[in-house]
Amino acid sequence: MNAQAPTAQGRGPSSQARNLHWLLTNLVDEVPGIRSVAVVSSDGLLLLSSDPDRADEAAQTGENNGPRGSSADLATIVSGLGSLTNGAAKLMNGGVVKQTMVAMDEGSLFVMAVSDGSLLGVHATPDCDMSVIAYHMALFVGRAGHVLTPELRSELRKSMESAQ
Fold first, then answer.
1. What angle do CA 73, 25, 33 make, to 5 degrees?
2. How many Cβ atoms from other residues are within 10 Å of residue 43's Cβ?
3. Please, are residues 92 and 54 in contact by the beta-carbon 8 Å criterion?
């Protein structure tokens, strides 16, 4: 993770940004079966990723362990799936979408609402324990949702842009 990305003021990341990075690292390191994680803003921009440098690395090596090996691709998928399920919920008068899960032959994708339209996306292995991943995602959302303020989202966007 790029925990040392400078903020717009030229200093290191804020304590809230460091805490979110720590929570994300913990999620990936402690939950078996997680391949990659992305936090996406309501407008589809990548705010936080478990592997911000993977896009360049995957392109150079031809490796494909995730969606094209890129956090940006995972963010795009998460944003699109979030938009699709929100639209479906409106058409069905279903209320707010809390979680979406897609099971595939070669993996699983989980999307959970964080706050203000932000989304947490997890790409997992096919043999993962879905209930364990969903539980830990809910813990992340509970801990991160209240600190994901507009100011922090702006800081995280700038940090991700400078990492690319």
1. 70
2. 10
3. no
Token couple for 128: 């993962």
Amino acid at 83: S
Side chain identity at residue 102, one-letter code: V
For the chain, the residue count is 164
Residue type at 66 in one-letter notation: G
Percentage of residues in the chain having pLDDT higher than 90: 54
**Two tokens, residue 120:** 């947490």
Residue whose pair of structure tokens reads 């040392």 in the numeric block: 4
| Beta bridge pairs of residue 119 | 40, 113
- pTM for the model stands at 0.81
pLDDT band at 90 (very low <50, low <70, confident <90, very high): very high
CA dihedral 20, 22, 27, 31 (to 10 degrees): -170
d(CA 75, CA 78): 5
Buried b (16+ CB within 10 A) or exposed e, 117-145: ebbbbbbbeeebeeeebeebbeebbeebe
How far apart (Å, rounded) are the C-alpha atoms in residues 56 and 12?
A: 23
